[in-house]
Fold this sequence. Notes:
Helix content: 10-25%
Shape: flat
Strand content: 25-35%
Amino acid sequence: MTALQNRYDFVYLFDIKNGNPNGDPDNGNMPRQESNSQKGLVTDVALKRKVRNYVDLVKAGEPPYAIYMQEKAVLNQRHQQAYQALNLKSEKQKLPKEEDKAREITRWMCNNFFDVRTFGAVMTTEVNAGQVRGPVQMGFAESIDPIKTDEITITRSSVTNDRDAEKERTMGRKYIIPYGLYRSHGYVSASLAGDATKGTGFSEEDLDLLFEALINMFEHDRSAARMEMNAQRLIVFKHDSVLGNARAQDLFKLVTVQPKPDVKLPRSFSDYIVTIDRDNLPAGVEIIEKL
């Protein structure tokens, strides 16, 4: 694997039509919404979940692309794999006293699990595997415009058991937004990625896979609630150094997204204009349009 030598920041745009991009379980699974601006939200956790699912799909769960955080995964069992592979014995909630052995365990987790070396992980359970600060971070996605949630009534024609066979059909509800274009920012730290001995070992190949996942992950995440959810743009800022050549917030300001002047109610990505201000791009930073 090729060690990461450059810092990256990126702007990620995706949209949804007649669906729910990220339901809030504390609010009847309605689409998440910022209370003051009424703009829609999608959590970083939801986006990372889709990245994990895509990588698991294309790499079939094999090291070094195994996925640590999976549904119904028993994390202690994941950690125990590291101890067994290194012929070490685990003590409850404690890493080995020898610093080199403790590092070996955490390094093994990074080497084998894609999401550990990408997003980091706190692995200090009963079988302690240490903790890792990930080089890749993503913020909440926020819709460009305020969203309006529609409540749709649905019916259920089938019943669960014989005694309910003569009952009338039951009613239910689902919540959708007619259309929403969302923007998220991402950060990739080359210094935290490091190499095989320092950092998590997140590599150039891992970065390519991350970008591939962001472009394609919605294609394999279709459901009744997210049928029309699509990645639209992935604009990457590549710095020519490990520490970077400009502040991320200044780079993000170079990308503006706004509805076309004659559009009052956006209902598709084509109703927006995405502008990249290349004239004010800082020295030492390159723009790569992945999508």
